[in-house]
Specification:
The complex is a heterodimer of chains A (183) and B (86). Chain A is an all-alpha fold. Helix content of chain A is 73%, strand content 0%. Chain A folds into two domains: 104 residues, Rna Polymerase Sigma Factor, Chain: A; 73 residues, Winged helix-like DNA-binding domain superfamily/Winged helix DNA-binding domain (Arc Repressor Mutant, subunit A). Chain A is built from nine helices and no strands. Chain B is built from four helices and no strands. In chain B, 26% of the residues are buried. In chain B, helix 1 crosses helix 2 and helix 1 packs parallel to helix 3. Classes of the chains: A mainly alpha (183), B mainly alpha (86).
C-alpha cells in the first residue's frame, strides 16, 4: 500500500498555483509558464503508474515540471545556436551544466534574497490552500491579482460588504498562518 | 449639519484597516482609523499584522493563475483523464 495516493482530478485545484508560481520564477513568461504546467499535468497523468507513493504528489509533480523546464530551455537554445549559449560561459572556469543550473533553485547574485522570496511565496500559497475555497478565491483575486472590488463582485456575484467580510476573515487567517515562520 | 463622528467602533476600524491595505480607504476614514488606533491596543495589533501580511505578499512577488485559465486547464486534463481510461 503506498503512503501517498494519486488523484489527477484534484491536481488543478491543489497544485496549479504552486506549480505556476514555481515555473514563473524560472521562465518569467506567464503564457509559457502556463503551458509548462499544463504539460506537466498531462505528463503526470501518462506516467501515473510510475508513482510509487514515496514522495508526496506535489513533490512528484515538481520533479516532472523541472524536466519540462529544462526541455524548454533546451529547445529555445537549440534555436538560437551554440554561439550565444556559450557567451554566458566564455571562461573555462565557469563552464558547466548551465541548463540544470537555470532550473535549479535560484541561487545567483542575490541568492539569499531571491531564495527567501521564493520560499515566502511557497509559504503564502501553502497558507492560502488551507483557507476555505471561497475565501481563498476572493483573497487571491483581490490581493495577488489586484482586481478592483466591483470586478470581483460581478464575477463572483457577491455584494461589496460581503467581499470585505470575506477579505477580513481571509486576512486574519493568513496572518495567523504566516505568523509562525515569517513574521 | 450632520454631526461629525470621530470615534468609531473596532469592527469599523478593522474594516478601514482592510481597505487601507488595498488603498481603498478615503483620507477621512484613515484619520478616523488613526484616532482609533491611539487608544485601542487590539486594533493596533491587527493593523500591525495586516500591514506585515501586505508587505510579505508584495515582497514575495507571488503569482497565480487566472480563474478562467484554470478552468481551461481543468477541461484539458479532464479530457485526458477520460482518454486515459478508455
Amino acid at each position: 500500500m503506498p503512503n501517498h495516493q494519486i488523484n489527477p482530478k484534484k491536481w488543478i485545484d491543489l497544485y496549479s498555483d504552486y506549480l505556476f508560481n514555481y515555473t514563473i520564477s524560472r521562465v518569467s513568461d506567464r503564457e509559457i509558464a502556463q503551458d509548462l504546467v499544463q504539460d506537466t499535468f498531462l505528463a503526470g497523468l501518462k506516467s501515473m503508474n510510475n508513482f510509487k507513493g514515496e514522495a508526496s504528489e506535489r513533490t512528484w509533480l515538481i520533479s516532472i515540471l523541472k524536466r519540462k523546464i529544462i526541455d524548454y530551455y533546451r529547445k529555445i537554445n537549440s534555436k538560437k545556436g551554440k554561439a550565444e549559449v556559450r557567451m554566458i560561459y566564455n571562461d573555462t572556469e565557469n563552464e558547466g551544466d548551465w541548463l540544470e543550473e537555470r532550473v535549479a533553485d535560484p541561487f545567483d547574485k542575490n541568492a539569499e534574497d531571491k531564495l527567501q522570496n521564493s520560499e515566502l511565496g511557497d509559504a503564502i500559497l501553502n497558507c492560502l490552500s488551507k483557507l476555505p475555497p471561497k475565501q481563498a478565491e476572493v483573497f487571491k483575486m483581490k490581493t495577488i491579482q489586484g482586481f478592483e472590488t466591483e470586478v470581483i463582485c460581478n464575477e463572483l456575484d457577491i455584494t461589496p460588504s460581503n467581499l470585505w467580510v470575506i477579505i477580513h476573515r481571509a486576512r486574519t487567517a493568513m496572518a495567523e498562518c504566516l505568523k509562525q515562520n515569517w513574521f | 449639519m450632520a454631526k461629525i463622528r470621530i470615534v468609531i467602533p473596532c469592527d469599523e476600524a478593522n474594516h478601514v484597516c482592510d481597505k487601507t491595505q488595498y488603498k481603498n480607504a478615503t483620507l477621512w476614514e484613515k484619520i478616523k482609523l488613526n484616532i482609533h488606533l491611539l487608544y485601542c491596543r487590539a486594533c493596533r495589533e491587527y493593523t500591525k499584522n495586516n500591514t506585515k501580511l501586505s508587505k510579505a505578499i508584495a515582497k514575495s512577488k507571488v503569482e497565480c493563475l487566472d480563474k478562467c485559465d484554470k478552468e481551461k486547464m481543468k477541461q484539458k486534463l479532464e479530457e485526458a483523464i477520460n482518454e486515459h481510461r478508455t
